[in-house]
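Handout, section B. The chain below has 322 residues.
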Amino acid sequence: MPLVTTTEMFKKAYAGGYAVGAFNVNNMEIVQGITEACQEQHAPVVLQVSKGARAYANHTYLVKMVEAAVQECPDIPIALHLDHGPDFETCKSCIDGGFTSVMIDCSSKPFDENVEITKKVVEYAHAHGVVVEAELGTLAGVEDDVQVSAEDSSYTHPEEVEEFVTRTGCDSLAIAIGTSHGAYKFTPEQCTRNEKGILVPPPLRFDVLEEVSKRLPGFPIVLHGSSSVPQNFVDIINAHGGKMPDAIGIPEEELRKAASMSVCKINIDSDIRLAITATIREYFDEHPDHFDPRQYLKPARQAVKDMVAHKLVNVLGCNGKA
């Protein structure tokens, strides 16, 4: 099947109590690892591209790699999505360039300005058969060009969501309920430690999610910054020359709960980076004489595939839903 929008994916996810995985892609191995896992698990998937990815890999290369994945994985629906589009011009470029979904992120701007810019993107996108994700509330953390301090972050205000969706016409809404971008989602001061001394992050604000769901029944909600930062990857990185103290993510059981509610799309990026980096660091230590990139990128690709398969089955619940 050709690239699709997220419309049908999200309808089925909302009704079925699961979420579709939205995985950031930057190179061939990442695209292959994600889509091979989804093909084997018969799961729908959103492949998303950030502004940083477009600057790194080039828009055309990324689109063509995703088109290759569509050809190689014909049994699953694949959407190509712009993650954190900073302005109308970037969204327009992606709409004109083959994307089936775009996100316009004006969450840091005043409410009316967010509405105005989002509405402009929606009107252009819908005229070209493309869907739009918008955002209310601001997530802390660092991801590519998105950098927000904990002090400047804010939870979504449920009383604003109906007006925002009505005025903009957006197709899905990213909200802030306590997730955060990057591998260092929380400071140690924000967390508690369990009996093993491991940091435990503050719980997600499910009360905010529930109130948003009441005000927008049937409307697809998106969670950004939802990597779980698996500690096995962090341990491997640190054991092989890395320095990632106190890296911590969102507990998978909380994400599964969100997926069973109105959250239809969960964004995962840092976990992919950690899987690749851990695998390559370990490989270099074990094979100091190797220099062929294919030698270390092959197991890195497999690590991405294994990690994504785990997410599809145990976190998102979207396996078998293609």
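Note. The CA atoms of residues 95 and 152 lie 30 Å apart. Compare this with the example in section A.
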